[in-house]
Amino acid sequence: MAAYTSTSTGGNWSAAGTWTTAPGTGGPGIGDTVTIAGPVTVDNSAGTSGVVKIGTSGAAGTAAISYSNVTPGMITIGASNQLWSRGDVNIQNVYGGSSQAGITVNAGASLIMDPPTSVIGYNINCGPGSGYTGVNWDGLFFNGTSGSRCACRTDFTRATGSPNGTGAINSLITTDNLGRSEGLCTASYTDFTNIGNSSNFGICTLANSYSVNTSVSITYCTFTNSSIYIALSPGSAWDGNLTFSHNYFLSSLVNTASYASFSLACNIVPSAGTLVCSSNYFDNGIDITSKNLTFSNNCCITQQSPVESAITFGTYSSWSSASYCSGNLFIRSDNGVAGIGLYGPISNCYSVNNYSSDFHSYGILTTAATFSATGCVIENTQTGGSGGIFFAGSTACTITLSNNLVLPNPTGIGSGGLYVNLPTTANAIIVNAEHNTFCGYQQQTGLVDLGEPGYNSLADSIASVRANLVWQATYYATRCWAAQDWSTTPATNALYSNGAGYNGFWNPSGGTCTISGSGTSTPGYNGLVVTNGSLANISHDQTVSSNPFVDSTRNFVSWGTHVGVSSSSVANVTTYLSNIANGTLDTLIPALRSWVCEGFRVTATAFKGTSYSGDASTTDADGNAWSGATPDIGAMAYQSASVPIYRNFTTLGALGN
Asked: So where are the chain's domains?
């Protein structure tokens, strides 16, 4: 056993001249330790045919690889070679300047932590150290390709027991949080396995800038029994680019402090650079706090057990455009009835409630003056009803809900009221709800709902509830309404003048509203008290007696059957989505949403071109133009029943039909 130090000029691991003291054949190995003082490459002759095992298998905290505090360098693991560490890897660089310390893993190569027992865990500790003034990133760089992936894992061959703290201990990739750029910087086509535990995120990225803005790029990676935390600008403004895309979290670890296996924090608004998180499969929660992060086409799943996870956008988050939160699929099996907090507008998202029967999908928490949700699909896979889908917050705001679809659950019950406001003060929250398609069968609330027992509505709370299609396949006497006021004491004129009407109905529930002091039968509306003529235009409503849709059975699970998922279920469809061989999520999620939406094209001529005069809407929820100059009623455009619907019908993946 010996301690070796590389020369400042470095060289191949296997070459005697690379080290200040000549090692045996193949270079330093089992029982040895090394200090890196110059660039070293794990070459094909290193160790045993390019497989190097280094370290003493000592107690936790014992180093196998350290870096010089005078002239640190990089280790490069050559293509298809392996570096196994039987001790900590301490990537610390106090030298600064233009020096850099870290490990580059080339295509097909592996970096493996090799603990000796189930009670010892070894870590990769990244950090420049106190007093560092350098300009480069110190940490890890993985350069896999689609045909030659890299790997980084904790190996339990020598450590009996199962991973994740129940037996063997997973390794960590840590940062020292001293305000420099360190940790995982780049990774492409890399498989991370057994990194992290319930108390500590496994993989850490810390991006600060004092001289440069190194871009962070993590793409086409898998994280199995692992977790990752990315912190941008925690100590100083960082204006680099973040790209986190096409990554897959599989059986990932939940950090119990954040209820997520993926966490992203950007505490200072970048003045340059772009932040992109797209087309990722998150199987166990997310925790994101960032401004103007493009978060799109991600599949985000939560679990209730064995550890509860959540989908969280932190209170510092905000975004100004729906393009920043678009095309995502949220599948929630947690018990968080308050819903996903939204700090900006969203579009084309698909939400599946897979746990609770009294469940809010989204909470509107933006502090901006306006909020919108457009083109979203919401469904509940449970047998009971649900609470409000978009739940109003407490800040004055004008809310626009358009071209959204609320589907029935498997028993035909609606998946929640589209909008609920339970005001406690005069908070000036105003809603516009137009061109939505809403199943209200046996639902707790109507499409737009004000108050409930114990809460009172406010005047001028609804600006418009027009051009919506409200339906139930079987008549039920209550709650299949376009608007209702369920307050203990309903406000007079909660509805703006001319704010209702031109809606479409299939089997609306009967209702009673008070119009100019007189109780009046108003099918499709209930509980409103008006003196301003705001219900006058309900005479233009359109009602049909039979199913007006192309195919009202379409939903998340039936899409699985459509694309060939055997015994389609929520679990089996999510498994299908987790396999990139079936297609990337920026293809699959839009295809799911489009296929479901197209089933709700209307074939009833009563809804064709019968919206209100001056309606400025131009396209439906799937981008189809309306049938004529005056828009159709509902979220989806009219389609002649004699014309088959083939839009986005092609089965994806290997099926190819």
From this structure: 1-15+38-240, 335-657
